[in-house]
Amino acid sequence: MPVERYRMQSRPLGICLIIDCIGNVADGLRDTFSSLGFEVQCFLCLPVKDMIQVLHQVASSPRHQGRDSFVCVLVSRGDPHRVFGVGPAHLGLPLEQVRTMFTGDACPSLIGKPKLFFIQSYMVSETEPGTSSFLEVDGPASTSVASVEPQPLPHTLHREADVLWSQCMAHACLLEQPGASPSLYLQGLSQQLLQDRKHPLLDLHVELNRRVYDWNSMVPAQQRYSLSLQHTLRKVLILSST
After folding, report:
1. What contacts 22, CB < 8 A, 6 or more positions away?
2. Less Cβ around it within 10 Å: N or C end of the chain?
3. pLDDT at position 117
4. Is residue 54 part of a domain?
5. Are 48 and 92 spatial neighbours (Cβ–Cβ below 8 Å)?
6. Is 74 within a domain?
7. Where's the Caspase family p20 domain (predicted)?
8. Predicted local confidence at residue 153, as pLDDT
9. Does residue 137 surpass a pLDDT of 70?
10. Is 129 inside any structural domain?
11. What CATH number did the domain enclosing 170 receive?
């Protein structure tokens, strides 16, 4: 039986929103997703209120209508469930809130299209990476940032279908080391996407898992990364139109 694939033919493939509140990965990610055919919108070092404004503007953009996908990359200090931007921890933005802004009822122009989230969180609380549960992609929705009540979907496709949620956690102490390099997770993601763009994205994530855990086996606990993938994809996703 032929394997059904998501359509990835539009030019550009979709919007890739990058919010880098650390300031050391944006250039590489911009180049990667631009080369894949995305319209990249990049923002650096935002407080939470500005992050919410940018996310809301992108979620409500009419340009999703003619595009085949959407990508969101968030890089920030935080905890397992929030990102802090450049502000204090008590003003953190819940990751669940980010996700629900792009579900089918909140963003109808992305219904049936893959919505990809790549989150690098640097832990600044006492929570150890990997000790808390991650967000469930198919769990109950939280309140959307938008003030308008979401409208019910006009068909039976689940409101949270077609989402890939990849989250990596690491200690914030990695950012304080002399000559600190960009996230191993995001570096590996960029390399995988550039080298093997014609392979299914889920296969690329398996290789990314291998890279991360090979690294973890060689370094002290505070230099390790904890990586989790949740998804509700219904088809094979290849980030290449050829």
Report:
1. 75, 76, 77, 120, 122, 175
2. N
3. 98
4. yes
5. yes
6. yes
7. 26-121
8. 43
9. no
10. no
11. 3.40.50.1460
